[in-house]
Amino acid sequence: MLNYIWIGLILLGLFAAVGNDISDEVRDTYRNGKVLEGTLEIRKSPSAIRGTWEGDLSISRDAFNAFYGAERTDADVRQAVVIATGTDSVQAIHLPITPATPAWWREIVKSAGSKERLTGTVTLLALAEDGSTARIGFTLEPIQFVKLRAVTQAALDYAGIAVNIALGLIGIMALWLGVMKVAEEAGLLLIVTRALTPLTKRLFPDIPSDHPAVGAMIMNIAANMLGLSNAATPMGLKAMEELNKLNPKAGTATNAMITFLAINTGGLILIPATAIAVRAAAGSGNPGIIIGTSIVGAGCATIAGVAASKLLQRLPRYKKAMEVSHE
After folding, report:
1. Cα 322 from Cα 250, distance rounded (Å)
2. How much is the mean pLDDT over the chain?
3. How many domains does the chain divide into?
4. Statement to judge: residues 125 and 223 lie in one domain
5. DSSP string, 68-127
6. DSSP states of 117-129 as a string?
7. 270-311: per-residue pLDDT in tens?
8. pLDDT for 19-63, tens place per residue?
9. Looking at residue 79, what is its pLDDT?
């Protein structure tokens, strides 16, 4: 079912992106093929640097906003440009992206061929007698399928992130599964399990107290309480695997699974080690100040989650569903 949900979300994102791109084409948001005029203050002319012009392009705020049909800038535009000359009057123009570049052009360049500059064609409209300034008209490269590109790129980026996370968990899972095996062989897991038997019997009455799932759940909850979320993940997966072995209807969550999931989702914690490390790395003066509030907040969330789980388990509708599953 989760696979269908993800496919549905991806398709929804693609349809929304295509819809936005069609809307941009209809409204001509990026003014593809339209000529924008400006004044070029020439710093270097063709006679100085092998057939190219360098200078600063100036466009008034009103002219810029009127061209794009919205408030795209709140100040006059002054942009460095390079123009490559040729044998005819239509030449290539390059606009390097700098902090002084208007925010709208910096947004456009994300979908352009180069992320460092905008390119297009330019026509010399008028040249001052002293050669210091020129009036030019230029057309930027066409910008199309902006949202669709963004969605597909995000999908690829997050796919790469998912692979990195999966590979990163291999070492942690191997370590903690090994620790659990050592603890089991040494009898330590049995001791801890017996000590917590009164609590686990109340939370998971359907699970035998000596079942491997109990040990995995205890290890998972302990790691979570210490703020070691990555270390808790393999134990959580192992616990769910063991709980599923007791499940009379594989693929349907049992009461024990739901209660365990509620505890994990509540995030019961004593030492938020990961959050403290992030705050310390960000330069916090007192990174450990969140311990008290984390305990109270996570405790309330866990109690609410477990209470909701136990309450719903008693409702006739869900009890009947579980009886059907047991049959």
Report:
1. 12
2. 81
3. 2
4. no
5. HTS---SS-EEEEEEEE--SSSEEEEEEE--TTS-HHHHHHGGGSS-SSEEEEEEEEEEE
6. EEEEEEEEEEE-T
7. 767 667 766 776 677 887 788 888 888 888 988 898 888 888
8. 999 998 888 999 999 999 999 998 876 654 456 888 999 999 999
9. 92
Whether 181 is covered by a domain: the verdict is no
Least confident of 114-123, 210-219, 285-294, 317-326: 317-326
In a domain, 288, yes or no: yes
Q: What is the mean pLDDT of residues 99-104?
A: 89
How far, in whole angstroms, is CA 62 from its chain's centroid?
36
Between helix 255-266 and helix 229-245 the angle, nearest 10°, is 170
Residue 291 lies in a domain: yes
DSSP 299-318: HHHHHHHHHHHHHHHHSHHH
Q: Between the CA of residue 256 and those of 205, 309, 312, what are the distances in Å?
A: 8, 9, 12
Give CA angle at 133 (129, 139), nearest 5°: 125
How far lies 187's CA from each of 146, 181, 183, 209, 210, in Å?
60, 10, 6, 15, 12
Residue 130 domain-assigned (yes or no): yes
- Whole-prediction pTM: 0.53
Going by C-alpha positions, the residue among 276, 253, 282, 247 that lies closest to residue 265 is: 253
How many CA atoms does the CB half-sphere of 164 hold within 13 Å? 6
Distance CA 246, CA 37 (A): 74
**pLDDT on residue 270:** 73
CA angle 37, 41, 43 (to 5 degrees): 140
